[in-house]
Each structure stands twice: as structure tokens, then as C-alpha cells.
Amino acid sequence: MIKFLLMVNQQGQTRLSRYFEPVELNRRAAQEAAVVRCCLSRNKEQCSFVEYQDFKLVYRQYAALYVVVGVSHTENELSIFELIQNFVEVLDRYFSRVRLNQIMFHLDSVHIILDEMIQNGHIVETNKNRILAPLTAINKMADG
User: Fold this and answer.
1) Which BP terms from GO are recorded (predicted)?
2) Pairwise CA distance, residues 10 & 4, whole Å
3) 3-class state of residue 41 by DSSP
């Protein structure tokens, strides 16, 4: 099960966080800081899967953007690694070329994409056209 998804920049600032199980707000900030430090401190030759406290971290770097996913110990790391790749490809298709400022200025669209892909901590959709269908409909209504 997916516990959370974070998008952070190279300075370790969280740009998007999405939790799929309840975490207290005061604990959330400390956990995010520790998780980000753990992932950013690793070099590129090290594996992108990390055992961390009571869950595993799967992360991937795209230019100045890190996508970090916390999962339960029973989750398949490679499937989450592919989920991250698919998520970035969907963002890239929607934004034409994904950049950090687009994510910050269009958080609502990024959350809609995440909602289409992941529900209650489980992957429910990977087809890019079906993931983008609600956003396409919203954009058509806004234009028309």
C-alpha cells in the first residue's frame, strides 16, 4: 500500500505532498524533512529503494525534481518505480514539458492526476489517456 507521495526540489523543499493514510500534522513535517534528507543524501550510484523506519522509500530524480513514495513493506518496489515514471510521463504530456514552477502553479491539476492514478493508497489507473480524460473535459468546458 502507498502511504504517501512527495515531490521535492533539490534544496529539499516540499512542493507537493499527498498522504493516503492519516498522519498528524506536527509529525508530518518532521517525517517529510527526515525522508527528504535520506533520499537527497544518497548519490546516483546507490539504489533508489531505501528501508526507512516502518516503511520503504522509492524515489526517482528528474532534473531538479525528486518524486519520493513511501510504501508498506509488502509493496513491490519495481511497480512503484514504474508508477513514478508513469506519473512523470502523464505530467509531461499534460504540461508539454514538466517544470517545477508548473507543478507549483497548477497544484489542482496535479492532484486530479494523482486522484486518477491512486485511490486509498492503491494504484487504480495507469493508462495515460484515461488519467488525463477529466482534465481534458475540464479544459474543454473552460474554453467553451
Assistant:
1) intracellular protein transport
2) 19
3) coil
DSSP assignment letter at 64: T
Edge-first strand order for the sheet with 55-62 is 14-19, 2-9, 65-71, 55-62, 49-52
Q: C-alpha grid cell for residue 79? A: 511497480
As a residue count, the chain comes to 144
* Residues 14-60 pLDDT 10s: 999 999 999 999 899 999 999 999 999 998 889 999 999 889 999 99
> pTM score, two decimals?
0.92
119 three-state secondary structure: strand
d(CA 12, CA 120): 26
